[in-house]
Amino acid sequence: MVVAPEVDAGNLIDSRRAWLTVVATFASSFVTLGIAYSFGAFFNSMAEEFGSTRGETAIVFGITTFSFFWLSLLTGRAADRWGPRPVLVVGAASLLIGLIATSRVGSLELGYLTYGAGVGLAAACGYIPMVANVGGWFDRHRATAIGLAVAGIGAGTMVMSPLSANLIDRYGWRDTYVILGIAGSAVLLASSFLVARPPGQPGAQPSRFAEAARSPAFRRLHISALCSGLALFVPFVFVGQYALDQGVESVPAAVLIGVLGGASILARIGFGSLVRRFGSFSLYKLCFVLNASSFVIWFVAGSSYPMLVVFVLVLGVGYGGFVALSTIVLAERMGVVGLGSILGLFYTSQGLGGLLGPPAAGWLIDTTDSYRPAIVACCLLLVTARLLLVRLPETNQS
């Protein structure tokens, strides 16, 4: 395979070469986030082996998402400075080492470190810096390109959760992590050959942390996203466990996360194509309404598997739209130069949400012996996230 050289020709914007970065970003997010969000398939096996509660087991996922989003502060800045390729290579090494180490742990607490740090760093390398890189390669087709690129998360979620459940049934959770580590790191290494700096940005890009932190609009978006993140990651860990508690078999229970991922694929592509007609920020706000509404469906679903499918479908559309549109909203308001650092700062909100939300929900479920209080809390958080956007202007005004 021929390694593509670093490119600085402005006429390559929206070119065929630009679409290779979309392919690479789709693949890297498919692998890293697909594996991270498939943790629900491993939940019961790890909890049973280590004798841990729901809250204690959910901390594995919480640390992973926290590491992913907060380490993106560093990886986003690293990609701005040194380019996306070395960042993706680090991600491949981290995924391989982290998953193989997790397959050997003798305690859940050690798994917090090996899985949380290994998969978290891999995701930090494979998603936000790569999406920011895509934004710099496009102008006219930016919304569509970013929508297709981030659809890798939905595709990964759709495939990896049921695949992991099948592999666990056949080989056990430890060997499954080894398989995912080897295959996933190979995909990331292959993707590194397809990425390069955006044209017109041949050197290090400036850090824009301080500029973003001073922007009132950015701060409001960040707090809104934090409220959203506290709720959104709860189903990734617990909807499968909820289904199991309702008598659903393990693979159909894992399929619920796959359905969520599939719905988010359509949303990421669909919302991107609707931006020119309806505006990115109007669609962005709609996603919060959909997410809040989905938890109402979960609340009334009871033991109905079809209703649970409807829940994850609606949530997948709202979640997928949020992911696709947040990058576009920030790029339109803040510009694409140094976008890696801006996205890294923005997604710290999701890191905190992932760290605190699922373990808190697990504690609430264990304490009340019911999922309903946690579902209500998630719905209220998403309503709050939407209300925080009420006074923000539709257009770029910091």
Task: Write up what this structure looks like.
The protein is an all-alpha fold and 398 residues long. It has one domain (10-387): MFS general substrate transporter like domains (Growth Hormone, Chain: A). 81% of the residues lie in helices and 0% in strands. The protein is built from 16 helices and no strands. The chain has helices spanning 16-36, 39-50, 54-82, 84-102, 108-126, 128-137, 142-171, 173-192, 209-214, 216-245, 250-278, 280-301, 305-334, 339-346, 348-368, 372-387. Helix 1 packs antiparallel against helix 5 (108-126). The longest helix is centred in the middle third of the chain and has 30 residues, at 142-171. The model is unreliable at 1-8 (pLDDT under 50).
Task: Set out the fold topology.
Blueprint: H1 16-36, H2 39-50, H3 54-82, H4 84-102, H5 108-126, H6 128-137, H7 142-171, H8 173-192, H9 209-214, H10 216-245, H11 250-278, H12 280-301, H13 305-334, H14 339-346, H15 348-368, H16 372-387
Helix pairs in contact: 1-5, 1-6, 1-7, 1-8, 2-3, 2-7, 2-10, 3-4, 3-5, 3-6, 3-14, 3-15, 4-5, 4-8, 6-7, 6-14, 7-8, 7-11, 7-13, 10-11, 10-13, 10-15, 10-16, 11-12, 11-13, 12-13, 12-16, 15-16
